[in-house]
Design goal:
Length: 259
């Protein structure tokens, strides 16, 4: 179609990512499919690979409610994995390993999930992507907790926390993930006091996110109100100018009739 481009496909991927963050998976899938269709039309191998990986990750969430969709997860992920290796795209290889690790962890196959997470971590370490290293280590820690290997989980999550602190960034999603992991670690240790402290951190982060979302909504409403107000003012001014021109025309006609 006219106007199709790799950048347009990437825009739809970005829209899908935003829907994923809002847990609107049906909408995310719609945007993911639109992106894939555009990439196929412009014959972008990189785009087709990215869209398959994205759609596969969306199906992981959908498969939790509809187990029959697990085949769709593997279908899209395996195509995305194969193309990543064909393109020798290390970032995409690391990404698909992470996605498949998440899939198997959610399916309860923790050992297989761990293999994929560790493979993903090695790629991100080779690339020097520290934020992603911290995120993958969080996933590995959660997997160890699911396996009941709490000491390994504690070691890995502390490594992740050290990397994250060095980055000196503030990401509420990452912060909440740390609180969740530590809360579960202390729960399994039956250290109820520290578990409770981590749960309080989780609730505080949820509260901050609600305020942030509300402020964002208020800001958008304010912009919409100001925009609408300006449009009304412009329409009013245009009406006044039109009326003024009509009065001037009538005056000229009246004076012409008198002369």
């Amino acid at each position: 179609k006219k106007g199709d481009s790799y950048h347009l496909g990437r825009l739809y991927c970005r829209l899908a990512d935003l829907e994923i963050k809002q847990t609107n998976m049906t909408e995310a899938l719609k945007y993911g499919r639109l992106a894939l269709a555009i990439f196929q039309r412009v014959d972008s191998k990189k785009g087709i690979m990215e869209a398959h990986q994205l759609i596969g990750s969306i199906y992981i969430a959908l498969a939790l409610q509809t187990p029959s969709l697990r085949d769709s997860v593997l279908y899209y992920c395996k195509i995305g994995e194969k193309m990543a290796y064909q393109l020798r795209d290390t970032i995409s290889i690391a990404n698909i390993d992470n996605i498949l690790g998440d899939f198997y962890k959610r399916q309860g196959d923790y050992a297989k999930g761990l293999i994929y997470f560790q493979a993903s971590l090695k790629h991100y370490q080779a690339l020097g992507h520290q934020h992603q290293q911290a995120a993958i280590k969080q996933q590995i820690a959660l997997t160890y907790l699911s396996l009941g290997q709490i000491d390994k989980a504690y070691t890995v999550v502390n490594e992740a926390a050290s990397i994250y602190q060095q980055l000196k960034i503030n990401d509420s999603f990452t912060d909440k993930a740390f609180a969740t992991i530590y809360a579960e670690y202390y729960r399994q240790k039956e250290d109820w006091k520290n578990a409770y402290e981590q749960v309080k951190i989780m609730h505080a982060l949820d509260h901050d996110q609600l305020i942030s979302d509300r402020n964002g909504a208020v800001s958008r409403l304010g912009v919409e109100y100001e925009t609408e107000k300006k449009e009304v003012q412009l329409k009013s001014q245009q009406k006044e100018l039109t009326l003024g021109r009509q009065v001037q025309q009538n005056q000229r006609r009246f004076l012409a009739a008198l002369s």
